[in-house]
Design a protein that fits this description.
162 residues; mainly alpha; two-stranded antiparallel ribbon; 2 strands
């Protein structure tokens, strides 16, 4: 039997042309983002530790430890702080962090739209998963915090063409 129903043409989506033009940022830029953001986080934590000591010396000892040994609780707390820090920075600056500003990249949804504050926070907290940094190895770079939130990091200039 023949299907004589007329074919309804597919109407292009709002982001179809834009989606096809988006290219993920290079692995080198992603690595530079990571290093710059990690350094900015340690600078933040340096100043935060001074405030923390002024507020409660005992709490500072819990986080940073009072010996030269391995402080698992402190490392886990710092890992969670890193995730919250990155999530808040990306939420405030709409998908950009200091590293992304310097390298000219931005985190976007897969359709090319800006990420929401909730997505930025989820991306940040996903970074607190152990070994997340190792998931970024490879080319193209597509770490877990991008996969789980269905986001990409793209060159900012690619978004400006529209």
């Amino acid at each position: 039997m023949e299907d004589n129903q007329p074919q309804v043409p597919q109407e292009p989506g709002l982001f179809d042309d834009h989606y096809n033009q988006l290219q993920q940022a290079s692995s080198g830029k992603r690595f530079a983002n990571y290093l710059i953001d990690l350094i900015s986080f340690y600078v933040f934590m340096y100043f935060f530790s001074y405030v923390l000591v002024e507020i409660s010396f005992d709490l500072a000892l819990l986080i940073y430890g009072d010996d030269d040994g391995f402080n698992l609780a402190g490392r886990l707390i710092t890992l969670v702080f890193y995730g919250m820090y990155m999530g808040l920075i990306e939420a405030i600056f709409k998908g950009r962090s200091l590293g992304k500003l310097i390298t000219g990249t931005v985190a976007v949804n897969m359709d090319g739209s800006r990420i929401s504050g909730a997505t930025a926070l989820t991306r940040g907290l996903s970074r607190a998963v152990p070994f997340n940094a190792f998931s970024a190895l490879g080319s193209p770079c597509y770490p877990w915090h991008d996969r789980w939130t269905k986001t990409w990091v793209v060159d900012y200039k690619d978004l400006q063409q529209e």
